[in-house]
Design brief:
- With about 425 residues, the protein is mostly helical.
- Helix content is about 55%, strand content about 5%.
- A two-stranded antiparallel ribbon has the order 1-2. A two-stranded antiparallel sheet has the order 3-4. A two-stranded antiparallel ribbon has the order 5-6.
- Strand 1 (about 200) and strand 2 (about 205-210) form a beta hairpin.
- Helix 5 crosses helix 17 and helix 19 (about 355-370) packs antiparallel against helix 22.
- The longest helix is centred in the first third of the chain and has 28 residues, at about 70-95.
Length: about 425
Amino acid sequence: MSEISERAAVRRLNDRLGFGPAPGELSAGYDETVRRLLGPGPDAAANAFAPPTGLEPPAKAASKNASKDEKKAAARQRAGQERKLAVWWLDRMVASRTASERLTWFWHGHFATSNQKVRNAAWMLAQNQTQRTHALGRFGDLAEAMVVDTAMIRWLDGQRNRRGTPNENLAREFLELFTLGIGHYTEKDVAEGARCLTGWVLRPKATLQRRRFDAGSKTLFGTTGNFDAKGFAVLALSQPASAGFVIGRLWFRLVSATPPDAATVARLAKAYGPSRDVRSLLTAMVAEAAFRDSESALVKQPVEWAVGLMRALGVQPGKLPEKDQTKLLAGLRGMGQLPLRPPSVGGWPSGASWLTTSAGLTRLQLAQHLVKQAELPALSVDKVATLLGVDGWSARTKAALAGVKDPAQLTAVAACAPEYVVSG
């Protein structure tokens, strides 16, 4: 194992638990950076952005008698609401100075829910706020909230799950993708879990209707009782495989694509503890030798890359003209990752999936668009490295950048270099 330098480790902390360093943050020490990112204090910078209002779905869209023009107008209104919500969240990400927003983004990919099907920005905001509230708290609290979350129920057809005609979609995904992983539950656990989740309707948000709930005895994981949604979540989380599954998911996105060995998982499980404390788990993760291993490089997801670039440039998405906000979101969509629109319940891909030729071209175009929104001084190749928080350029990259004289173009090209696209 080759250990990276202290400065590189601080940069990695900012990349993995934040969205890249803000100007001046690389001068802090490692322990000081851990305390800032994982300390108990609120994220005042991100919290300065009040949640958007006016996200309720258009009434005409729900009417069976709505005309074609009214339906088109409703679709435009929903699109505008989703854009407002996405830009607000990007504002929070750019401003954030703790790990809370980064973990909210992680949980959005873990409990992946897309507004493409939900079609209700108010429900997506409520889910987003719930994930933020529990982002660094107890995983059990988050899982229990997600299994009865309005947007999640709509996304996974939970409102169709009623006594006598259970729908297994939510129960299956909760076990397979959210809490345990394949191979750690049976088909009977799925069927009985679906019975636990019966009775929820969307009127106008998730509400339990007792007459639709299956109050009969159920047996899950060898335990029998009249379990409801909370009981189902508690039973799933009590399984021995749950801790390792959650640890593995966080490790894969925040530490390394190489899974931790059994001894590392055991150490991390001890930090995670019976309370399933995410903050304690992350504190232990960044103390592992693997976190400082030069081999533990990760390709930045498009949103992470774009937010880090906007942070470095001092660009606030919410202050951009609407047409420029549209270009920003179109760029993210072109790279394959748009907030509120994960491609499936399995969330987004990772690693080399983001390094396709088409994604690279879109990345450069978006970088060029973003640098136009910033006020840039005269920049040398070395100074643009400082601006972007890069430790240094390889000889190949430095030679390529040396021929670019315009500060804006130099910054855009540098932002697409491997040293910035990859969190090394």
